[in-house]
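Fig. S4 source data, part A: sequence.
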Amino acid sequence: MSIYEYIDGGVYMKTIKQIADELGVNKQAVEKRIARNADIQAHITKDEKGVKQISSEGEKLIRAAYDAIDKDIDTSTDKDIDKSIDASTDTVQTLISMLKGELEVKNKELEVKNIQIAGLNEALLNAQREAHAAQILHAADKPKLLMDGHTETPEEKPGLFRHISDWFKK
């Protein structure tokens, strides 16, 4: 059987289901469209089984109705999409501006931290130099102490024990 059935006087007809399938909608949607349009209803007949048949003219009217809806949807959808894109673009631009501001603040904070680190490194180097100088002085004083009659070195008697033993000697 062909897409069109040959009915009454050589006029080709389709069922509502066939038209609905071609339009990509369900049968009920096409039936509602037909119910709202008297011009389309004039192109419907029933066959001997009671199946509604639509003439090629009725089919053209149904397709025209769906094309008009598609154009309205496309137009409104395009406008909605444009609005959505504009809103998204504004949101993205706002976010970018906010992130740039935060990045500037973080960069300034990093500059301050770098200055602090440089200061701490300088203080550490000074402390190391002072400790080294103290070690050199102590090493220089050690032979002098031995020559003055001090036979014991601080390593032999720790500080507290040295003081206690000196106290008992008195």
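Fig. S4 source data, part B ends here. The radius of gyration is 50 Å.
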